Amino acid sequence: MAPTVLIVDDHAGFRTFARTFLEAAGLDVIGEAADGSAAVEAAARLRPDVVLLDVLLPDLDGFEVARQILGGAHHPAVVLTSTREAADYGQRVERSGARGFIGKAELSRQRLEALLWGDGISSR
Question: What is the CA radius of gyration of the chain?
Answer without folding.
Answer: 13
